[in-house]
Amino acid sequence: MITKRIIPCLDVKDGRVVKGVSFVGLRDAGDPVELAALYDRTGADELVFLDISASHEGRKTMIDVVRQAASKLTIPFTVGGGIRSVEDMTETLRAGADKVSLNTAAVLNPELIHEGARRFGNQCIVVAIDAKYQEDTGTWVVYTHGGRERTDWNVLDWAQHVVELGAGEILLTSMDQDGQKNGFDIALVKAVSDTVSVPVIASGGAGSAQDFIDVFTQTKASAALAASIFHYEEVGIMEVKALLRDRGEEVRWIPTR
C-alpha cells in the first residue's frame, strides 16, 4: 500500500506566510522559517513553499528565505514561484530544495519541463496546476500568474501533456475550493488522478481531518496539502494521520518531537 503524504503549504508574499480564500483576501500567518521548523517537528511528510507573487511581479523566488527554511528541514522540500529557467532550478535546488514546482513558466514554455527533467530527473519536477471550473464549458481550465490569468488549456489535457514532458508529480489546486474549508474538490482530484500515472497532490479546500479521509478514499491522490488549518492550529497533522491510520490507510507515523 502506498503511504499517503500530508503536506503543509507555505504561501509566501513579501517574506511572510499568507493565506486567503480563492487566491484573494490574504492575511498574515507567520514567519516561513519558524513554520518550516515547526512542521518538521510535528509530523509533516513534506513541505511546499510557494512564492505566490513572484511570477505576477516578474521576479525570482526569495532564495535567502528558501535557504533559511531548508536549513531547518529534514523532510523533502518543494519550492515554486518565479522559477523560469534551468538556471533558476539549479539555484533553488542548491539553496536546499529537493524539488522545484513550475506553474506559469511551464505554461509559457512547456519545454522547460522537459529540460528540467532531463537535467535533474523527473522526481525533481513538480508541475502545479491551478484549476477553475468553467460553467460555460463544463470543464476545468488552467489559470496562471497566481490565479489571475485564464489559459486555453483544459486541466485534463494539460495534466497529460506535462507528464509526457517529464513531470514527476502534479500539485493540483482547486481555485474554487481554495480557503473555503468545506472539503477538497473530489471530482477534480478524481478526474486528474485517474488520468495521469504520476502522483497527484490534492490542494484547496481542507477544513477538517475528515476531508483528508474523503480525498484519499474517493480518489487516487497520493498526497493532500493544506495551509490555513495547519497554520492556525485548527487541525493537527498527527490528528489527521491518526484518523487515516484508523481507517486502514498507510501513513508515516512519527512521535511529535
UniProtKB/TrEMBL annotation:
Pathway: Amino-acid biosynthesis; L-histidine biosynthesis; L-histidine from 5-phospho-alpha-D-ribose 1-diphosphate: step 5/9. It holds the Pfam family His_biosynth. The active site is at 11, 130. Transmembrane segments: none annotated. One of its GO terms (molecular function) is lyase activity. Its EC number is 4.3.2.10. This is Imidazole glycerol phosphate synthase subunit HisF. It catalyses: 5-[(5-phospho-1-deoxy-D-ribulos-1-ylimino)methylamino]-1-(5-phospho-beta-D-ribosyl)imidazole-4-carboxamide + L-glutamine = D-erythro-1-(imidazol-4-yl)glycerol 3-phosphate + 5-amino-1-(5-phospho-beta-D-ribosyl)imidazole-4-carboxamide + L-glutamate + H(+).
